[in-house]
Amino acid sequence: MAPMQSWLVAPMDDEVSKAIRRLRRAPGVQRVAVMPDVHLAEDVCVGVAVATTELIYPQAVGGDIGCGMLAIPFDTEAASIGEPRIAGRILACLGNAIPARRRNRRRTIPMPGDLSRGVLSDARLQTLWNTTGVLEFATIGSGNHFVELQADESERLWLMVHSGSRALGPAIRDHHLARGDSVGGGLKCLRSADDSGAAYLHDAALARRFAEENRRQIALLVEEALLGNAGLGHLQWAQAITTDHNHVEHETHGASHLWVHRKGAMPAWPGQVGALPGSMGSLSYHVVGRGCADALCSSAHGAGRILSRTEARRTITPRELQRQMGQVWYDFRQSDRLRDEAPAAYKDIRAVARAQGELVKVVRVVRPVLNYKGT
Asked: Using CB atoms within 10 A of its CB, is residue 179 exposed (0-12), middle (13-18) or buried (19+)?
C-alpha cells in the first residue's frame, strides 16, 4: 500500500477512508496526499493528490478537467456596489452576459484562434468540441461554479471566477475510461507510454486550456458588462491570480519523476500564488505555496463539502440560506435552487486554512460582496 500524508480538519469518515485505501492499493500508485477539504466523490475523493510512476488514472483527475480559479482586482472600491439598486443591476447584467449552461447559437463567443483549432483524439470528441464546446465557451456551469465580487482588507474590489471545461471534461474522461484497464475497486488506468495514455493526456491538456480560456473570457465579459451598465472600473490584469485543481502533470519530486494527479487539489509549489475559495457566503483566501514535499506540492482547492447535495436540500430551507448569506448580494429568487450551495453545506474555510498552514501561506483575505451562480 502506498504511503499517505494528510492535513485534515476532522477525522475522515469511513467511506472516505475506504476510498483512500482503495486508491493507495491501486497499481503504480507511489504516494497519496489528502487535503483538508477532502470529501467523498465518485471513484476518487475530491481533495486528493496521487502520484504514479507510469500509469494514468483519469478518475483521479475527475470529469471537470481544468476546473479552477481566476482572481483579479478592479481599480475601484467595493463600496461602489453597496446599494440594492446597483447590486440588482449587476446581477441582471451578469445573468445576461454569462449564461450558466449554453449560449444562443447567434450569440456565441469566439474561442482564441489557437484554441478554436484544437484537435481531439477521437471524431466523436471532436464533434462535441465543435458544437457543444462552442456553445458552452464563456459560460460558468452550475453547482459550485460562480462569479463573485469581493472586497479585500483595504476594501478594494476583486473578481473571482470558478469554472471549468464544461461538458468537454466528462466526455473526455468517459471516452478514455472505456479504453482503460480495470485494476479493481472500480478504478481503471491507462499506460502513459502507450497510445491510449498519450491520447488521454493530449485531450486532457486541451480541455485544461479550454477551461483556462473560459475563465478569462468570463472575466472580460464581466468587465465589459459592469463598466457599461454599473459604472465599475477596469480589471487590473497584471495582478491576476490563475490556478486550476483538476489535472495530471509529469513532475519531479525529489529524485522521482511522477505523474501527479490532482482532483480538487491546487498546486502549491514554492512561491506559487493561488486562490482558495470559501462558500458563497464566506471568506476566501489568496495564498502562496510553501512547496511541501509530503503534500506533493499541493493545497486544498476550497472549503470542501460537509453535506451532500441531497442532505443539504433536505435540511436547509430557502429562508435559512438567506440568513446564512447575511449581507452578501445574490439573486434571492433562486434561494430554493441554491439551498445545496448554502455556506452550512461546506466546511469552515478558516479551519481548512489552519489545517494546511505548512502547505501555503495566506497573503490576502477577501470577503464576498455579490455572488452570481448558475442554476
From this structure: middle
Q: What is the pLDDT along the chain (375 residues), one digit of tens a residue?
A: 999 999 999 999 999 999 999 999 999 999 999 999 999 999 999 999 999 999 999 999 999 999 999 999 999 999 888 888 889 999 999 999 999 999 988 889 999 988 989 999 999 999 999 999 999 999 999 889 999 999 999 999 999 999 999 999 999 999 999 999 999 999 999 999 999 999 999 999 999 999 999 999 999 999 998 887 677 789 999 999 999 999 999 999 999 999 999 999 999 999 999 999 999 999 999 999 999 999 999 999 999 999 999 999 999 999 999 999 999 999 999 999 999 999 999 999 999 999 999 999 999 999 999 999 976
* pTM for this prediction: 0.96
β-bridge pairing 29-39 and 146-151: unpaired
Tell me the backbone φ, ψ of residue 227, rounded to 5 degrees: -65, -40
Whether residue 186 lies inside any domain: the answer is: yes
Position 318 in a domain: no
CATH number for the domain harbouring residue 80: 3.90.1860.10
DSSP 201: H
Specify the number of domains making up the chain. Answer: 1
Nearest to 45 by CA among 301, 236, 264, 337: 264
Task: State the residue range of the domain holding 155.
Answer: 4-234+244-306+346-372
Domain-located, residue 58:
yes
Grid coordinates 436547509 are at which residue? Answer: 316
Q: Which of 321, 367, 277, 368 minimizes the C-alpha distance to 69? A: 277
Residue 64 belongs to a domain: yes
